[in-house]
Each structure stands twice: as C-alpha cells, then as structure tokens.
Design brief:
alpha/beta, two-stranded antiparallel ribbon, 6 helices, globular
C-alpha cells in the first residue's frame, strides 16, 4: 500500500502550536519519520509531504502530493493546543460523510487510546482542507496537547514519540486488515 504522511505545519513560516519550548511543526516531523519507518518495515511505500522546514504554509499542495502519487492512505500528523492547560488527549479527524475516512480514523484512534498515554477524545469530523482535497481515505491525527504539561512530557520524549508511532502503525495495519 502507498501511504502519504503529512507532517502538519511548516516550520518557521508556520510553526503551529508552540509551548514549553516545543513547536508543533518539529514534533510532527519527528513522529512522521518514526511512523514512516514502521510502515516501510511493514512493506508499505511511504511518501512524505515534507522532509524538513519549508517556507510554504498553504495546504492544497499537501493533498496534491498524495493525489499525484496515487496514495492509498493519507495521514496528517498534528499536535493540539488550548487556552486551558487542562485540555489533553488524542483525537482523530475524518472528512464529514466519508465512510472510509471514518473507518481509518476509528482504527487510528482505537490504537492511540490503547497506547494509554493520555485521554481518548474520540473520532471527530471536520472540513479540513487536507481531508477534503485528498482522493483517498484520509485522517488528521491530533497526538496530544502541547499546552498540557502531561501531554507535552510524552510528546517531547523519544519513548513517547515511539509509542505514538507504534500505535499509528498498528492502526494502519488494523485498517488494512479490515478491507
């Protein structure tokens, strides 16, 4: 299977959430590479939307990369932020009305929840450009809240990132086995 992994945000041009000395863009890239390694070991062809910091904060080209590569799955990795430092947990988004996107999101969410490093915030629907513009099943994963000290401790650690990447890879394997 060909899988496109999107490390959300872009670096200095658009770092995403920032808290505790971390930027979402850098975290997303680290987790994307860990996930890609695991998926490649499972025999998948992995494509990344970016391999480092870029100067472009637009969104349509991310879906274009996946569409042009004829990817079978698209996974966009993000970290959340909130005004309240009490907000924490993982959640996975799919495009409204996409049955196959929902199944992918449910598989990813199930395995992230089983990793038991933060709260399970469930599967949600959203009209995000990267979900709307992709031609294949797509999910946007919020792996935790950078504004939560508890989540950030996990997200900042190599062991935590490894746990997240393992859970996402297991979610992809689970989704693939259900097809």
């Amino acid at each position: 299977m060909r899988i496109c992994i999107d490390a959300g945000h872009s670096g200095p041009a658009e770092p995403g959430a920032c808290s505790g000395g971390m930027t979402e863009a850098a975290l997303n890239l680290d987790v994307a590479f860990l996930l890609g390694e695991k998926l490649a070991r499972q025999g998948h062809d992995v494509i990344y939307t970016r391999a480092g910091d870029i100067a472009d904060d637009s969104l349509a080209w991310r879906a274009d990369i996946a569409n042009n590569a004829r990817a079978d799955l698209f996974i966009s990795i993000h970290a959340n932020a909130a005004v309240s430092s009490d907000a924490h947990g993982v959640e996975v988004y799919c495009y409204p009305g996409s049955a196959v996107g929902r199944k992918l999101a449910e598989c990813l969410q199930e395995h992230l929840a089983e990793a038991d490093y933060t709260a399970d915030r469930g599967v949600k629907e959203a009209d995000f450009a990267v979900l709307r513009l992709t031609d294949m099943p797509a999910a946007l994963v919020e792996i935790g809240f950078l504004t939560s000290a508890e989540d950030r401790n996990v997200l900042a650690s190599a062991a935590g990132q490894e746990k997240i990447a393992r859970a996402l890879a297991a979610g992809v394997a689970d989704w693939n086995s259900r097809q």
